[in-house]
Design a protein that fits this description.
10 helices; 326 residues; alpha/beta; 12 strands
């Protein structure tokens, strides 16, 4: 597995990471034993960048990841997030970035993960009620205390990133990026490159849609949050399926599947980009890792750009985009 550096002074990580969210929530039922096996297999294959968050579960995903890496802490670059406040029963209580909450959330995550230090600590969503300087200032205190090594932001706008970076160096920015979510190419990526901040791309497979596994909404399990995601609903589903079919044609010519082509495309967009495809199955993990070996020619990239230009997807990324900092 190729290695990539996170920002100017961040850690070196595998070119692909592993998103662990779906192992605990959102994407239908999960099997903890298989999830742990998937993480262990990722480490065996050289994927050492693991991504979780306190709200996944809620709270259970951090415990699962901690269990999977127990005794192997030195082999892992561990990222987690705070900022979306949820109750034990899963109810969402809003977004918080006040210093008191920052410190309390970190302590809770360290305990659940069973580690003494978090390698990369993200603010999951920006709190519009708290100046970013106050939030990042509190996060910087965690670095000084040795509880966190590097700081990150998730779904933050360019101006917010600049203000945060001026308060304490930001190592990575995480947001959605894929063939059907290319908006970051406009202002976000240029800002990150100017500041030498890495881009961690979540949902590089379009929440699984770009793999071609879903041909109708009924292919999604009951309780799966994607059933209520705008891009999976009604006419949007049909229009987005047409995109997948065009990607599948190019993929077939290269002897790979649509998901592998989509992931390979993200990997070619810059060595400062690290996609973190999520899966809870070893089979799909191995397919994703194989995508790192897919070579795309200039002609391949031209054809992909033609079928999946910026703005090609039908529907918003979320039913409620209000928590996203713009």
């Amino acid at each position: 597995m190729e290695r990539r550096k996170l920002g100017r002074s961040g850690p070196e990580v595998s070119a692909e990471g592993l998103g662990c969210m779906g192992m605990s929530e959102f994407y239908g039922s999960a099997d903890e034993a298989e999830a742990v096996q998937t993480i262990e297999r990722a480490l065996e294959l050289g994927v050492d960048f693991l991504d979780t968050a306190d709200i996944y579960g809620p709270f259970t995903n951090e415990r699962l990841v901690g269990k999977a890496i127990a005794g192997r802490r030195d082999e892992v670059v561990l990222a987690t997030k705070f900022g979306i406040d949820r109750a034990e029963d899963g109810a969402r209580r809003g977004v918080r970035g006040d210093p008191e909450y920052v410190h309390a959330a970190c302590e809770a995550s360290l305990k659940r993960l069973g580690v003494e230090r978090i390698d990369l600590y993200y603010q999951h969503r920006i709190d519009p009620q708290v100046p970013i300087e106050e939030t990042v200032g509190a996060m910087a205190e965690l670095v000084e205390e040795g509880k966190v090594a590097h700081l990150g932001l998730s779904e933050a706008a360019p101006e917010t990133i600049r203000r945060a970076h001026a308060t304490h160096p930001i190592t990575a920015l995480q947001t959605e990026y894929s063939l059907w979510s290319r908006d970051p190419e406009d202002e976000l990526l240029p800002t990150l490159r100017e500041l030498d901040i890495a881009f961690v791309a979540y949902s590089p497979l379009g929440r699984g849609f770009l793999t071609g596994r879903f041909r109708s909404i009924e292919d999604l399990p009951e309780g799966d949050f994607r059933r209520h995601n705008p891009r999976f609903e009604g006419e949007n589903f049909d229009r987005n399926l047409e995109l997948v079919e065009r990607v599948e044609e190019i993929a077939a010519e290269k002897g790979v599947n649509a998901g592998q082509l989509a992931l390979a495309w993200v990997l070619t967009q810059g060595e400062d980009i690290v996609p973190i495809p999520g899966t809870k199955h070893v089979q799909y993990l191995e397919q994703n890792i194989a995508a790192a070996g897919v070579e795309l020619s200039d002609e391949d990239l031209r054809r992909i750009d033609e079928v999946a230009p910026v703005g090609v997807a039908a529907g918003d990324r979320y039913a409620d985009m209000s928590p996203v900092d713009r």
